[in-house]
Write a structure and sequence with these properties.
alpha+beta; 562 residues; 4-stranded mixed beta sheet; 11 strands
Amino acid sequence: QNCQMDRELFLTPVELPFCQLDAEVAFTNLTSQEQLYAHYIAQASWAGALITSRQVSTESPSALRGFILLFSEESPAAFRTKLAQSGIPDADANAFFNFVARFFGNMGNYLSFGDTKFLPRCSREAFDKIISLADSKQAKQLIDSVADVLFSLEDNEKMLALPPEGKSAYYSENISEQDIKLVDGWMTGNMPADSAYNTRIFKEEDGVLELRVAAAEERDGPTSSVDGRTIRVKYGDHAPFMAAAAKSMRQAAQHAANETQREMCELYAQHFSKGDITLHKDSQRKWINDKGPAVESNLGFVESYRDPVGIRGEWEGFAAAVNRPMSERFQSLVDGSEALIAKLPWPREFEKDKFLRPDFTSLDVIAFGTSGVPAGINIPNYDDIRVSYGFKNVSLGNVLSAKSAGEKVTFVSQEDAQTLKDWRGKAFDIQVGLHELLGHGSGNMLMESEDGSKNFKDGIAHPIHEGEVVKTWYKPGQTWDSVFGSVSSSYEECRAECVGVYLADQPSVLDIFGHKGSDRETVVYANWLNMARAGVLGLEFYTPEGQRWRQAHMQARWAILR
């Protein structure tokens, strides 16, 4: 009975919320040249998105390809009619469609927000019968080949984690944490900083540790011996998908609005072809300098939330149209950023000498190829670029406004539930703006360069321990992710969320977002209440057996609630 109750937690829900992401107006308002530019970037984004399934689980790529083939041969409506005519009960048909929809939404069979496995709610017998009715023979073969694993729920399959506690397609199942540390330590001294982002590590049968680098061009990299172990670098991981992404970016370059965009697209294509992380970093420098484009985009192995070690990035790529009126509000926030930064509760010495004013735009997403669409983004994540060149903030407007009909507001009184229904969207606009711009965008990483120079003065006072000076800083080759590892994302999200709540009641901020009179107190309260409730909801993403958080934002919100 306990096993059955445990399995119930992992079944796809009977009622699955769907949100409409409306991009029609955003796309039609673009010029024909801009539409073509957005189209090819979208093509590159979705070509790369197929990689995401290869980063989730070993069974996900075959299942994804099978489901794509199934619904390429016949429409969902036609297939559903066929199921009814074949005597498949509605409950089983609904369970199948919900599972496939959830699978597509997460680009695999593990939740992108929470990292737990989900299973079909129908029986294996019903699932097999449904698949047998597909027109595509190849779809049947692909799905049948992984059906056992799609229904399996062994203890080490319940969540994404390092073997043997869990599964992670960033690493082979026979690898150990010591193996990973050995390779990552070697990378720090032998490859450019941040080179881990587009890699995976596999342990061969002979014990060789192979570092696989995503690239269209397949070639051998260096081989080294470390502590009696062999480390081999191999380029060409995800080669077909990287080649398709590179091709589409070269086509996008032909429709670029300016030389900066064209050079950016070419650098993306070169990076996708060769796998060299320095090429991607060069593309991000160009991206930062592409000010105020009509079509905004970003592609690559960006966020490391789902890597159990916290340093390898998941593919994401997007094309979006700029929402000019909302972007003007965010630009006003940028204009007042220095005054707001001065109100943050840490010494001036821990801020950059000069705040590098970023682009901050509100976007309507046209295409977003990854395992889950965020509400806002602050990138690039490369520390050296952020310190020297700056960053960009984007708020994804049509994601923020997308709602599922009949959503329930739990854990609060009826009065507070109504407040959240009426004000959560407006409060979230403020929170996302502050979170991305001044949460992720404030602060200065104290760093030492290869030549021994530092970006701060020696002897600055410690911000917490009175009477002491700062004695540690980032050495050459070290990054935030490499130093703080698996807790790095949670800690950074906690800082960003706190900054948002801390500054949300500032009169200048409320003026920018058009809140006057008593509305100010209400929207500030809604923002606080939403964060407090998110802390309670965060417990859903905590695994008590392993005392492990499965989602960085939720760990951050629980810490804030505490």
